[in-house]
Amino acid sequence: MKTLDALGDPTRRLLFDRIRQSPCSVNEMVSIVPISQSGVSQHLKILRDANLVQVEKRGRQRIYQLNPAGLLELQRYTESLWEDVLRAFGEEAERMVNGRKD
Fold first, then answer.
1. Structure confidence at residue 23 (pLDDT)
2. How far, in Å, CA of 1 to CA of 85, rounded?
């Protein structure tokens, strides 16, 4: 899943968390990570390719903001994990109630 791969890098998670706070420019993000503007742009491209962020050109600046479509995909995935956990919990609870040891 591209979204999880993109968020697997600590620098990208930091940039993603900054964008979660409010839309911002590349220059604003350069100040929060110890890498060059070019490096930040490369990380942002990966986040864009994973549909987690989108960019809007405002004059000479590019403003990055969250992409709701990509976040929905991530939400669906994490919810499916919880469904698996709850199903396993329910099965174990049923085994305990019925006194079975499988």
1. 97
2. 20
Alpha carbon distance 68, 29 (integer Å): 20
pLDDT greater than 90 at residue 9: yes
- CB crowding 42-80: b at 16 or more within 10 Å, else e: ebbebbbebbbbbbeeeeeeebbebbeebeebbeeeeee
Name the pTM for this structure: 0.78
Nearest 10 degrees: Cα torsion 20, 21, 27, 30: -70
Per the CB < 8 A criterion, the answer to whether 49 and 35 are in contact is no
Q: Does residue 29 contact residue 40 with C-beta atoms inside 8 Å?
A: yes
Summary mean pLDDT of the chain: 91
Calpha distance 70→54 (Å, rounded):
10
